[in-house]
Design a protein that fits this description.
The structure is a single chain. The chain is mainly α. The chain has one domain. The protein has twelve helices and two strands. A two-stranded antiparallel sheet has the order 1-2. Strand 1 and strand 2 form a beta hairpin. Helix 3 runs parallel beside helix 6. The protein starts with a helix and ends with a helix.
């Protein structure tokens, strides 16, 4: 009986997530219909990889955000509590979709790129912003017992930081927008890796109990600036690496080398994980 009690909690959580996945599938189908396309036709008949990437990373982001909220909900496991937290997670990730679409990929019509053009590069970047936002949700709601409004404010601050990081990358990596428009999957992976790293670091720094706005904001600023210095140094160093008489940047931006882009994204993510766990 003791061994059975050990698995009751995990099984009930897994079943709850499974129900959530079914609901999300229906929600994404309805959203697609409202936006003028049929998700089933796109995925199963047009083989639209870009839309599949969007839906997959959106779903992972909602589940991750839910677990980040629910784990800290004072041990509640009732169906009503789980449903409330799932709704909150879905709403926050959906809100991040519009914020990031309008302000990070502001010069793109995401639905046209992802649905009509099957642009996987844009799909990857869009999906990365969802996942990055899930880390922000987890950090913002780390101490949400102090007040829901405070958690929402930190979520919005985290979203602003993500938007600024996305804009900064496009300034440093000139030609990123053009590469995305040309469906350069490698460029999408590199930018997506940077944005996901930004979400991880933003979620880490805004988590924990508040010690006053002035103190909190000074800590966030210093933490982000030091991380940015490390990431920019890594960016410059990796771009100077010569592969087959070609710089890493050229491999990603010009040659569309996905392996090189993954190498770059892994450096961003690994450096960020080390930084946030230090």
């Amino acid at each position: 009986m003791e061994s059975l009690s050990v698995v009751i909690g995990p099984v009930s959580m897994a079943v709850g997530v499974l129900v959530l996945l079914v609901i999300l599938a229906g929600f994404l189908w309805a959203t697609g219909k409202l936006e003028g396309y049929d998700p089933i036709n796109e995925i199963f008949f047009r083989d639209n990889t870009a839309l599949g990437i969007r839906f997959a990373l959106y779903t992972i982001a909602v589940v991750y955000a839910l677990l980040g909220i629910f784990d800290r909900a004072q041990g509640e496991s009732a169906v009503a509590a789980f449903s409330l937290h799932a709704l909150l997670a879905a709403l926050l990730i959906h809100l991040s979709r519009y914020l990031n679409d309008w302000l990070i990929l502001y010069d793109f019509d995401n639905n046209r790129e992802v649905v009509q053009e099957k642009n996987s590069a844009v799909g990857i970047v869009e999906g990365a912003t969802y996942w990055a936002s899930a880390f922000v949700v987890g950090g913002a709601f780390d101490d949400w017992e102090s007040g829901l409004w405070l958690a929402v404010v930190w979520f919005l601050i985290g979203q602003i930081l993500l938007i600024l990081l996305g804009l900064l990358y496009r300034v440093v990596e000139r030609g990123a927008a053009k590469a995305l428009d040309e469906n350069n999957t490698a460029a999408g992976i590199a930018l997506g890796g940077f944005l996901l790293s930004g979400g991880i670091v933003c979620g880490a720094v805004i988590s924990g109990p508040s010690q006053g706005w002035r103190h909190d904001l000074s800590i966030v600023t210093a933490y982000i600036l030091v991380w940015l210095a490390l990431i920019l140094a890594a960016h410059v160093l990796t771009d100077s690496i010569v592969l087959r008489s070609s710089r890493l940047r050229d491999e990603v931006m010009e040659q569309r080398n996905i392996a090189a882009a993954l190498f770059k994204a892994v450096i961003f993510l690994s450096l960020t994980l080390g930084y946030t766990h230090g």
